[in-house]
């Protein structure tokens, strides 16, 4: 029988980078001191409800059929895997396969529909840039776990650290505008103004959007975790995403070389599991 075509289109959950910046700035404008007329600091611990969440019914079908999917599963942790060989729909499915192979749902007690919503929402948050797009995200997720496997890091991480690594790789470039932070600052963009021209403004934006999705009621991925575990997990995801700032790239590569040279034993030389996870994600 013919495979059903995916119902996931570029118009699924439409929301642009510019629209999100506008909404953040609108929130800032409303947060105005009524007595002095001057804008006050926005409470950065309170975020709007995300509008990126997608319906799991839009989950696509693998274009080449089940037999080919079974074969590709065996290469998902291989350094030779090439994300450019697959369509965005197929990459969406393969990220779900990575989630399953990592057994990330073991402690979460979550449904497959929730996992699908998570991955689809990450995809909906990626613009069609030439480089910072959904293919890039899938490539990074795969390379992260390829490096983590080859270095021995994956075997040393606990389940929650592996989950944080997956989530950080999945969201590390969400809503990327396709230009550098330096360009945004030089162009006096509204996004640069919002983050006060911080050199790491892109990573901050990605981490905030990741946080929004992880607390969104439409993606109850973490609902069965104890409150402290949820806080720690979100903190790990944030720190790993912030570590992808290219200003830290040279130091990060040295840490990854240490991991590859010493295997899991190299974690102590870097810091801890979170630091090692951040190094692998930034290098990927």
TrEMBL record:
Residues 35-284 form the PDEase domain. The keyword Metal-binding applies. One of its GO terms (biological process) is signal transduction. It holds the Pfam family PDEase_I. One of its GO terms (molecular function) is metal ion binding. The active site is at 132 (proton donor). Zn(2+) 2 binds at residue 173. Zn(2+) 1 binds at residues 136, 172-173. Keywords: Hydrolase, Metal-binding. InterPro entries: HD/PDEase_dom (IPR003607), PDEase (IPR023088), PDEase_catalytic_dom (IPR002073), PDEase_catalytic_dom_sf (IPR036971). This is PDEase domain-containing protein. It comes from Cryptomonas curvata.
């Amino acid at each position: 029988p013919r495979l059903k075509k995916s119902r996931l289109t570029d118009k699924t959950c439409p929301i642009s980078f510019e629209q999100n910046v506008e909404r953040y700035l609108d929130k800032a404008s409303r947060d105005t001191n009524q007595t002095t007329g001057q804008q006050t600091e926005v409470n950065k611990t309170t975020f709007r409800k995300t509008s990126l969440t997608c319906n799991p019914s839009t989950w696509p079908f693998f274009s080449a059929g089940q037999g080919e999917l079974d074969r590709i599963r065996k290469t998902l942790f291989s350094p030779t895997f090439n994300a450019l060989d697959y369509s965005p729909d197929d990459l969406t499915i393969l990220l779900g396969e990575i989630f399953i192979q990592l057994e990330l749902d073991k402690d979460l007690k979550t449904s497959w529909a929730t996992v699908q919503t998570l991955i689809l929402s990450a995809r909906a948050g990626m613009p069609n840039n030439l480089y910072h797009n959904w293919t890039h995200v899938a490539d990074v997720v795969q390379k992260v776990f390829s490096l983590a496997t080859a270095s021995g890091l994956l075997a040393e991480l606990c389940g929650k650290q592996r989950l944080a690594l997956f989530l950080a790789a999945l969201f590390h470039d969400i809503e990327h505008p396709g230009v550098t932070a330096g360009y945004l600052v030089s162009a006096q963009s509204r996004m640069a103004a919002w983050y006060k021209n911080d050199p790491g403004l892109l990573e901050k934006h990605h981490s905030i959007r990741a946080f929004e999705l992880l607390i969104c009621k439409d993606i109850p991925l973490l609902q069965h975790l104890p409150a402290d575990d949820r806080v720690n997990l979100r903190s790990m995801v944030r720190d790993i995403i912030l570590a992808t700032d290219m200003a830290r790239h040279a130091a990060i590569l040295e840490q990854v070389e240490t991991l590859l040279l010493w295997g899991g034993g190299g974690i102590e030389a870097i810091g801890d599991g979170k630091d090692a996870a951040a190094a692998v994600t930034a290098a990927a």
